[in-house]
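Let us work through a complete example step by step.
Step 1: write down the sequence.
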Amino acid sequence: MSHLKLLTTLFFLGIQFFAYTQEEKKSIFQRIKDKTKATSEQRAENTGDKIGNKVGDKADAAVDSLLSGAWFKKKKKTDPAKDEKKTAIEPNKKTDLAEGDNGSKSSNGGFTGKATGKYDFVAGEKTLYFDDFSRVDIGDFPADINTNASGEIVTIDGKEGKWLNLTKNGNFLFDAIKTLPDNFTLEFNAGIQNDPTNNYSGFGLIFSTTKEELLKQNFFSPGTSVLFLHPGAAEAYVSVLNANATGMSFENQIKMPQWDVADNRFVKISIWRQKGRLRVYANEDKLVDIPRFFAENDGQYQMSICRNFFDNCSLFINNIKYAIAAPDTRSKLLTEGKFSTTEILFDTNSDKIKPESNTIITDIGKILTDNPGLKIKIIGHTDSDGNPAANQTLSVKRAEAVKMRFVYGFGIDETRIITDGKGSSEALNANKTPEEKAANRRVEFIKL
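Step 2: predict the structure and record it as tokens.
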């Protein structure tokens, strides 16, 4: 084992050996330290340089840290919120980022501006699974999610809708998310209550070609790729264990200020797979872009989510959307003359456009800017919940709101755009399941 791999292994040993007594820990890690020292000295002798000893010194320091108990210290616990109505998070406590704030913190390096790149996430258009837990009673656990842990549906003060509170460490498998397609997107909101400390691996997404791996939390086998998000440490961690002998296994830790228990307790996570490539976004910031996260020839991947926190905390998720990704669907507006999207989102019973709609609005705005002769019709659609007349009025107002974003945001002449609304009169399905309702809440663009 190389010293580099040893340093990584020590982290996982620290987690797994927590249950041992202090004397047992000292005995185990002292043996590791002795072996590390001997190996580093041998490398220095063989190579004629000091590299081996330098790496060995780092390993010695890591083992010394373990022996001193530094990796096993717990932060002071805080009492979880108690509310007989099963609400969580104090209503007056700041939990959200302000619009446009990516959570980054300024430094003393002299540069106080913000370097930005294009937010290139494109959500899939064909929804395979959507759940806002609206059908599940408060206190219950969704019947279509299997787990070896536990959880319950709750409401959160100051937050819209219902949330699934993952209350215990373990793994969660969604019955509707089976074999993953080569191109898909996964979106969800996540939140944290109380400080889980920076120990253990955090909130994980496990992708594997072997079903048994989906119930693990550490020490995965080849053919498994994992992504962990840890708001206690404000870091993301990726690991790829390639089953193909010609492939590359690797791991890395990435700073994640967008989801930090000290500052930003809630985050929107977006995940995009394109064959071997994985892109991960926190709010509108790209965290990860790995071309070989999935081994394209290693079989069909499946997925589970994992909760693995050290200290008492509550982990919340909601608005889970899993969809098949399609290439460049926006070009349909020019090539086919028609384009429909479910990615322009509004507040409930409102024509206020949500910030996460900015990407697709920007793309269509660019099409209108680049094609000054193009005229379009925008049509709003709703699901069939509620009063049909009210839905009709709401769909018209939403179409008009989208038009105004193009007029005031991109300087498009408003005579180039007409609007209409169909309410729930042109439903695409029976409008019974959350997935069907999500598909009906759409905005349609037609080339004139």
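Step 3: interpret the result. Residues 3-72 form one domain.
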